[in-house]
Amino acid sequence: MPSASSNLIASAELISQGAEAKVYKAHIHSDTVPILVKHRFRKGYRHPTLDASLTRSRVAGEARALLKCLRAGVNVPGIRMVDATEGILGIEWIEGMCVRKLLPGGAEAETELSDADAVPFTGVDALMGLIGTEIAKMHLAGIIHGDLTTSNMILESSQSPRLVLIDFGLSYHSGLVEDKAVDLYVLERAFASTHPDSEPMFSSVLKAYEVRMGKHWASVSKRLDDVRLRGRKRSMVG
Amino acid sequence: METFTNPHFPRNLSVAHVALFAPVNNAKDLRSRIIKAATLDGDEGEQERQAVNFAFIDARLITSRLHLQTAIYQAVMAEAQGALRTKKVHSEIVWILNPTNNITEALRRYGVSDTTRSLLVVRIDGPDLPAERAKKDMDAIISGETVPLDKLQDITEWNTVKKHYKLGQDTAILEAKGDSAREKVLINEIVISSVASKSIAS
């Protein structure tokens, strides 16, 4: 007999697919409030035992990071259901637009927003401030996102400007200055490769990050300079 | 009473009948009846166990309809997968609602106690059990009144929920200090998310 979660997937609408997971829009308790379902499907190229345990631990890891962020007051989607055995994580549906599409250069040609639509509710500078603040709150909680890009941030459209961080699939727990600096560096690179003239935008992000980090900022700032010189990966020499 | 149907679950677990009793006048008797039912032998025991075959949840600790629905969803899923941590799907709901792994503690906090004044009563079953029948079975053992589920918002004791989940020192809650509407939204979200991820909490 098919499992509850496979029935759920079968009734859901596929939104996107990556190498690691498929993402669906689905309904579990009501037809009016959707949830987002992330299904880490079976990988045929892995031994079944290894596949099962990796899938389970990744679903668990992502859910734990989200919960930790919620408790720390970071804007992230709430968790709605977990079926670790089947590799399924159901989270709150966030209605809004991803930041990549709100900034110049990020939208695909046909969906390019007119100037009037761009960055609703707030100006670019304010939006960058929201990003910096959310990242700082997350880092202060000891969570490293691991894949900070403008695609993984949603400006929620329902209420007064709320920036929501999504996709904690590569996140991990760490208090190290190095990890925070690399997290920021990854975002800086993402900005540079997606959006033209990104320097002033990214410096607004850092400005807000600095304010929120307080006394922790100095060491991260210093390390970020180091990381910029050598790149994301540390030298293995020595 | 309300009935939630989930077509994704196996037929015999696809329906949840939920009623909110407030006030409840016989909590003490109900509690001893549930305990006694567990120890009776033979046909009489079977009958008694059938009579109290519900999840009894102290409504003061439930923050929203979605909070309860999430616990029901995860409990039924565990039952369908043969992965219950407690003996029955109904006790599983109560266990999932409590933030720790201790079953006795879960029943003491979230189940019926002698002083319980309001109860959420849940019956998981198939579509063959009509709602009226489920309600009649509930009324047979509970002396009190049923009110719409939306009345929950007047019953929730937010400070007790906060205590059980140890939310007092969390940044999210500290930042919302003084804004009780916002604090409730945050508590509700953290509690729902905790319930949803109970199966992987270590």
From TrEMBL, chain A:
Subunit architecture: Component of the EKC/KEOPS complex composed of at least BUD32, CGI121, GON7, KAE1 and PCC1; the whole complex dimerizes.
InterPro entries with a match to the protein in the record: Bud32, Kinase-like_dom_sf, Prot_kinase_dom, Tyr_kinase_AS
SUPFAM superfamilies for the chain: Protein kinase-like (PK-like) (SSF56112)
The keyword Glycoprotein is annotated on this UniProt entry: no
Physiological role: Component of the EKC/KEOPS complex that is required for the formation of a threonylcarbamoyl group on adenosine at position 37 (t(6)A37) in tRNAs that read codons beginning with adenine. The complex is probably involved in the transfer of the threonylcarbamoyl moiety of threonylcarbamoyl-AMP (TC-AMP) to the N6 group of A37. BUD32 has ATPase activity in the context of the EKC/KEOPS complex and likely plays a supporting role to the catalytic subunit KAE1. The EKC/KEOPS complex also promotes both telomere uncapping and telomere elongation.
Name this protein carries in UniProt: EKC/KEOPS complex subunit BUD32
Entry keyword set: Activator, ATP-binding, Chromosome, Hydrolase, Kinase, Nucleotide-binding, Nucleus, Phosphoprotein, Serine/threonine-protein kinase, Telomere, Transferase, tRNA processing
Protein location: Chromosome, Telomere; Nucleus
Residues of the Protein kinase domain: 9-238
Taxonomy, superkingdom: Eukaryota
Gene Ontology annotations for the cellular component aspect, listed alphabetically: chromosome, telomeric region; cytosol; EKC/KEOPS complex; nucleus
PANTHER family with a match to the protein in the record: EKC_KEOPS COMPLEX SUBUNIT TP53RK, NON-SPECIFIC SERINE/THREONINE PROTEIN KINASE
EC number: 2.7.11.1
GO function terms (MF aspect): ATP binding; hydrolase activity; protein serine/threonine kinase activity
Family: Belongs to the protein kinase superfamily. BUD32 family.
GO BP annotation list: tRNA processing; tRNA threonylcarbamoyladenosine metabolic process
Pfam families: Kdo
Organism: Pleurotus ostreatus
Catalytic function, reaction form: L-seryl-[protein] + ATP = O-phospho-L-seryl-[protein] + ADP + H(+); L-threonyl-[protein] + ATP = O-phospho-L-threonyl-[protein] + ADP + H(+)
UniProtKB/TrEMBL annotation, chain B:
Entry-linked Pfam families: CGI-121 (PF08617)
Function: Component of the EKC/KEOPS complex that is required for the formation of a threonylcarbamoyl group on adenosine at position 37 (t(6)A37) in tRNAs that read codons beginning with adenine. The complex is probably involved in the transfer of the threonylcarbamoyl moiety of threonylcarbamoyl-AMP (TC-AMP) to the N6 group of A37. CGI121 acts as an allosteric effector that regulates the t(6)A activity of the complex. The EKC/KEOPS complex also promotes both telomere uncapping and telomere elongation. The complex is required for efficient recruitment of transcriptional coactivators.
Family note: Belongs to the CGI121/TPRKB family.
Sorted UniProt keywords: Nucleus, tRNA processing
Origin superkingdom: Eukaryota
SUPFAM superfamilies named among the record's database cross-references: PF0523-like (SSF143870)
Gene3D superfamilies to which the protein is assigned, alphabetical: CGI121/TPRKB (3.30.2380.10)
Keyword Cytoplasm found: no
Name this protein carries in UniProt: EKC/KEOPS complex subunit CGI121
Biological processes per GO annotation: tRNA threonylcarbamoyladenosine modification
Cellular location(s): Nucleus
Main location: nucleus
PANTHER family assigned: CGI-121 FAMILY MEMBER (PTHR15840), EKC_KEOPS COMPLEX SUBUNIT TPRKB (PTHR15840:SF10)
Keyword tRNA processing appears in the UniProt entry: yes
One cellular component (GO) term of this entry: cytosol
